[in-house]
Amino acid sequence: MPRLIGVRERLGHTLYSGWIADTRPGGMGVSHHASFSDPMRLYVSDIGDKLRTNLHVPGRLLGEQTAKVLQIGFHVSFDVEARYNEFFNEPTESSFVLNVNGEDVHTLRAADSRSFPKPTYDYGIRMQHDMLIPVTIEPQIAFNVTLNTGKEFANTMRYIDTGKWTAYAEVKHFMNVLMTREVQ
């Protein structure tokens, strides 16, 4: 495909990565690449599984792309209220830590230092926060997000992940970014 050499375009885009397990009859199943762990690194596995991530390369942007992170957030959803409560009420607060080039650059706490958030729909919530200081991910620089949860929550997710429990659980991180790339 012809390119306009040296001409770059900027596009709004959302990067996402998550862990999803659905062991209910007719459910989507579990990841064949990532089992739940605490901590768990997102954006580095399940490449090619569009339900779990939209990255094409583990922990990196394609080619000469850059991404300026303007907003950061997460989506969690469960089939029962108890899982939702575990995610937000553990003694260890659940958090997402953005790491760029080996350095932790931003932490998003699930409860955002506020009171326990009420679900916006059945046992789920989507939370989004503006970055006060945007973070730029340069071309070919490694990045990931570390998901930290409490032991009780992690143990429950492993029961679902291994099929010992029939359930649905989803924990997904996203970043709204301004992407730059060569015009194609």
Description:
With 184 residues, the chain is mostly beta strands. It has one domain. It contains 2 helices and 8 strands. A 4-stranded antiparallel sheet has the order 1-8-3-6. The longest helix has 11 residues. It is globular. The termini are close together. The mean pLDDT is 88.
Quick take:
This protein is mainly β and 184 residues long. The chain has 2 helices and 8 strands. It has helices at 81-89, 151-161; strands at residues 8-22, 40-42, 66-78, 95-100, 103-109, 124-137, 143-148, 168-182.
Features:
2 helices; mainly beta; four-stranded antiparallel sheet; single chain; globular; 184 residues
Task: Please write out the topology.
Elements: E1 8-22, E2 40-42, E3 66-78, H1 81-89, E4 95-100, E5 103-109, E6 124-137, E7 143-148, H2 151-161, E8 168-182
Antiparallel strand pairs: 1-8, 2-7, 3-6, 3-8, 4-5, 4-7
Radius of gyration: 17 Å
Poorly predicted runs are none
Number of strands: 8
Q: How confident overall, as mean pLDDT? A: 88
Overall outline:
globular
How are helices and strands ordered from N to C? EEEHEEEEHE
Arrangement of strands in the largest sheet: 1-8-3-6
Largest sheet: 4 strands, antiparallel
Number of domains: 1
Helix percentage: 10-25%
β-strand percent reads 35-45%
Structural class: mainly beta
Number of helices: 2
Intertermini distance: 7 Å
